[in-house]
Amino acid sequence: MNVLELSEQEIVRRGSLDEMRRRGIDPFPAAEFPVSGYSDEIKETFADEAPRRDVAIAGRIMGRRIMGKASFLELQDSKGRIQVYVNRDEICPGEDKDLYNVVFKKLLDIGDFVGIKGYVFRTQTGEISVHAQELIVLGKSLRPLPIVKVKDGVTYDAFDDPELRYRRRYVDLIVNDGVKDIFVKRTKVLNSMRKFFNDHGYMEVETPILQSIAGGASARPFITHHNSLNMELYMRIATELYLKRLIVGGFDGVYEIGKNFRNEGMDRTHNPEFTCMEIYVAYKDYNWMMEFTEKLVETICLEVNGTTEIKVGDNMISFKAPFRRVTMTDAIKEHTGIDITGMTEEQLREAATSLGIEVDETMGKGKLIDEIFGEKCEGSYIQPTFIIDYPIEMSPLTKKHRENPELTERFELMVNGKELANAYSELNDPIDQYERFVEQMKLADKGDDEAMIIDQDFVRSLEYGMPPTSGMGMGIDRLVMLMTGQSTIQEVLFFPQMRPEKVQRRDKEEAFTALGVPAEWVAPLYKAGVYTVELLSAQSAGKLHQELCGINKKFKLGFKAPLVDEIEKWIAAATLAAGE
């Protein structure tokens, strides 16, 4: 890497790296360091009257107070932080004191990994610490960390820019308290969910991510090409159709927790790659599944947080079962005053338009109803609420309602104004299913790019017979948002999808050398902020000369400095080139 591409601190750290190696210290050793204790457990279990405890700990240096022959450092491991007392003569028992005087005091930096062997004690100020008897360099940090400081309740130098935090999650996890806890809770959510299903006797399975038909949901898929098969494949938008094939095959209950991919918009609650759970249980209906779902969510909330009450933004949400139940028709009537019962497609389009909802000719009855509910109703349901009995046009994979054939036996669980779960009494009539698929294809012909494609193999599987079944899908990312009180999905994804990182546009070296600029001075020009020929044309020769000479001296480049007259010629040539 060109030295001019580095910051001053990065140059200093690389110098320390080289000095360590010159002293025979490997800054990136391969040998195991046997850790025997962690910060949280050491502090929790320490007792003044107990026998001395020897420990080996390892982590990052996050702070230092150097005081002559004795110093303190703050060590951060995977569980938290702990103070370490470092005495020169303890870690350097012989005549050679360079490990303390040079390595510890001068060559180690904030962010470096060290291993400490010593014993636990309490300082005179009462802080439980580790008294170091041996210090080992375990890893050199070549980039400085953004050090967040808190004084009198005020935070300084916070690493809080959302784009930087999500793009550099590894830094976010190091320096921002509480971020790691969100992801620890995420794992607890998944563990609790799996335990709940496994205790009920249901089996976790895996189904294909690359599929020949994007089925199981209404969504725009990502498309890829399989070279060996010479065919287009879709990244799955749902696991539903494969899981129901397994119910056909004889399993009583199966579930899958995995990634789905939808080539759609991104916002505070949507990421194109997201984690979803789907479960299908034979001989059950959507009424059973509602009770099962509310018990599942209540159990997860208790096991993860120890309570059923969670504060999300300004809302206090209770996950204590049972949850409220409201029909889709009643929900729309309650929030718009419009009764959609028996309405034609044209009447629904007029109703949506009268409510100020933007619609188009590609939308069928189901899409229009969905738009009305989404725009005018969904955000009102803060407490967990089951919206039930959806119109048949909205649910091509759902069994018709046993009392009203215009409706389906479907529910969505709404929490904090967003859908958390979607469930059906599954359609197991292959003739009805095929006809529903045909209706979806008509919508596709009208231009609806989210309409379902006929999955002939799935219909064939139903023709072999599928028992009465209820299925439910739940967005894991949204569930974790609720369980951790987060308002954006990016906060619960380690690495959310981001736009490409902005890179400063630079003209190539050849563009500058064509103006008469010597090749070795192109990098110093970049360092001075002159990235393009156009920028060079706008420079003052005297000022640029001064800046380039300063860079040459500061970074010890050893180049022969150009004269002001020469720089004037560069600028004149650049002005001419820019004018062309």
UniProtKB/TrEMBL annotation:
Residues 186-500 form the Aminoacyl-transfer RNA synthetases class-II family profile domain. Its EC number is 6.1.1.6. Transmembrane segments: none annotated. SUPFAM superfamilies: Class II aaRS and biotin synthetases, Nucleic acid-binding proteins. Coiled coil: none annotated. Homodimer. This is Lysine--tRNA ligase.
